[in-house]
Amino acid sequence: MRAACGRTMLPAFMSGAGPTSDERRVMNGSLAVAVLLLVAKVTAAILTGSAAIYSDAAESVTHVLAVAFAAWALRFSHKPSDETHHFGHDKVAYFSAALEGAMISAAAVLIVYQAFTQYLSGSPVEAIETGLWLTAGAAVVNTVLGVSLVRVGKKRHSSLLEANGEHVLADVWTSVGVLAALFLVKWTGHGWWDPLFAALAAAKLLWTGVRLMKKSFAGLMDEADPDVEARLRELLRSECTSRGLSYHNLRHRHSGRTHWVELHLVFPDLESVRQAHEIATEIEARIAAMLEPDGRVITHLEPRSAEHHEEDWEVR
Q1: Other CB atoms within 10 A of residue 70 CB
Q2: Above 70 in pLDDT, residue 22?
Q3: What is the structure's pLDDT at 256?
Q4: Which of 7-11, 87-91, 169-173, 279-283 has the lowest mean pLDDT?
Q5: Is the same domain home to 116 and 171?
Q6: Quick check: is 71 in a domain?
Q7: Does 6 map to a domain?
Q8: 57 and 115 fall within a common domain
Q9: Number of CB atoms found within 10 A of residue 272's CB
Q10: How far apart are CA 36 and CA 168, in angstroms?
Q11: What is the predicted pLDDT for the residue at 277?
Q12: In sequence order, what DSSP letters do the residues of the chain get, joined into one string?
């Protein structure tokens, strides 16, 4: 007779805590900086007529919209599970990252069109010094902000903050391209450097946008992380070997900030359900600790005599 027992490390309907202070701080800072730099870049684009600066400003428009959505998504992702969302709401982080990637890609297409139009028209670049100072200041601010977002995102295992940080750092590369373009226009007197660097910046943005969307789709499709899998199997090998157990049917996924793991633990036939339950609880606790800060573990207990008698719906 199969012995079955399931347990999670927290109740099914988790209370859920809101974003941490450092998450709120960097996200609020990201939104405020995005708005301020948009104003600065639009001003610089109007004053200079530069396609490269226009490309930077166009990217900043999408960035403000994406950050506004990300700020809402950060709060929403921390909502506790409820009667209609038993596994919480943190997968919204993948939607936010996908939206950010899509908007970056759309900005890249718009930039290419603007660069091509300016190249054909041969419009001159004016007020170069003003454009240089405004763009350089934006690059410095975005570098500090982007590094902070990525650092906090990795620390808190937040794909949302990491995606926002990558977007900010992509904006830095756009600004570097603008600076190079303006320097070359000023130094050589040839205006075609401006649309050329605008097109190069667009290529960089498109690469970043596609990469963000690819990562988001992988998360939405519950793609397994090979590094996490290797760590899980190493821990399970150690725990099961020392206890004379075996395991199979390991599954795991990452839903934004929560790692979900389920597996079957195989016990000797004469092991009592109580003893098996206690051992399984210890193993679950070790797995959850490895997947900090937020691990959810479900185990299915079965006797060795039924190990290879899987039901159709349990086979991966």
Answers
A1: 26
A2: yes
A3: 73
A4: 7-11
A5: yes
A6: yes
A7: no
A8: yes
A9: 10
A10: 14
A11: 94
A12: --------SS-SS-------HHHHHHHHHHHHHHHHHHHHHHHHHHHH--HHHHHHHHHHHHHHHHHHHHHHHHHHHTSPP-SS-TT-STTHHHHHHHHHHHHHHHHHHHHHHHHHHHHHHTPPP--HHHHHHHHHHHHHHHHHHHHHHHHHHHHTT-HHHHHHHHHHHHHHHHHHHHHHHHHHHHHH--TTHHHHHHHHHHHHHHHHHHHHHHHHHHHHTTPPPHHHHHHHHHHHHHHHHHHT-EEEEEEEEE-SS-EEEEEEEEE-TT--HHHHHHHHHHHHHHHHHHTTT-EEEEEEEEEGGGTT---GGG--
**Top-confidence residue, 162 or 275:** 275
- Same domain (yes/no): 158, 291: no
> What band does 298 get if pLDDT is binned at 50, 70 and 90?
very high
Tell me which residue range forms the domain holding 263.
Answer: 226-314
At 201, list the tokens.
Answer: 């910046």
Structure tokens at 219: 């998360």
Cβ atoms 280, 243 nearer than 8 A? no
Mean pLDDT of 163-167: 78
Measured at the CA of 249, the angle between CA 243 and CA 254, to 5 degrees, comes to 105
* Lookup: tokens for 183: 């320097």
Among the listed residues 37, 205, 63, 196, the one whose alpha carbon sits nearest the alpha carbon of residue 125: 196
Residues 6+ apart with CB under 8 A from 133: none
Per-residue confidence (pLDDT) for residue 10, from 0 to 100? 43
Q: Note the pLDDT tens digit of each residue in 29-59.
A: 888 888 888 888 788 878 777 776 777 777 7
Identify whether 121 is part of a domain: yes
Longest dimension (CA), the chain: 87
CA distance 155 to 23: 10
Tokens read off for 186: 């000023």
